[in-house]
Design goal:
single chain; 199 residues; mainly alpha; globular
Length: 199
């Protein structure tokens, strides 16, 4: 079994729980809901990406992380959010990804999330029209990029560390799910007039 297959198998339940909890499906996507999802994603991805970038550098990993947080910020700005409001959003604490298995496990979550971007982009635009979706538009071929990640991870992760990487990926999924629950409870009095209402 390849590393990607093992990660996919051992994280399937956590991945499904996160998707079910998010509930971001056709018929549920309103302008305010989309803004809430983007802001929650930014609060989670920005500190995670900073931690991943530092660990990638420390391990001299042959991998370049795409700027997902930057794209989330750009999408929110395109929806009319001020720089100050984006900066004031709560951020989660970053997971500890200093160890190589933890790094690979968290990268699996981040890179794998890109696979559904094309479908989500279609759903958002079907519901909201030409909404900004740069975060969900993957760099080139998402499946090819994910396979590249799998090859790289297999080459650098010792076999005895695969179980630890799977555990780290499950923790990352659970951490994201917990963050989404916290984000739903945050009341934002600065919410602007929705993007759709201003079109």
């Amino acid at each position: 079994m390849t590393l990607l297959a093992r990660l996919r198998s051992e994280t399937r339940a956590a991945h499904r729980a996160l998707e079910d909890d998010l509930g971001f499906l056709p018929g549920t996507i309103t302008p305010s809901r989309y803004e809430s999802v983007l802001s929650a994603f930014l609060g989670f991805h920005e500190p995670l990406e900073e931690a991943l970038t530092a660990s990638i550098t420390a391990h001299a990993l042959p991998w370049e992380l795409s700027a997902g947080a930057g794209r989330l910020t750009a999408d929110l700005r395109a929806l009319g959010w001020s720089p100050e409001r984006v900066a004031s959003l709560p951020r989660s604490s970053a997971p500890d990804v200093r160890a190589l298995p933890a790094l690979i496990g968290a990268l699996y979550v981040v890179e794998g999330a890109k696979l559904g971007g094309r479908v989500i982009t279609r759903w958002v635009r079907d519901e909201l029209g030409p909404a900004p979706v740069s975060f969900f538009v993957a760099d080139g071929d998402a499946r090819r990029g994910f396979r590249r990640f799998g090859v790289m991870a297999e080459a650098v992760l010792p076999a005895q560390d695969v179980t630890a990487a799977c555990e780290a990926a499950n923790r990352c999924f659970a951490r994201f799910q917990d963050w989404l629950a916290v984000s739903r409870d945050v009341d934002d009095p600065q919410a602007p007039v929705s993007w759709k209402a201003r079109r």
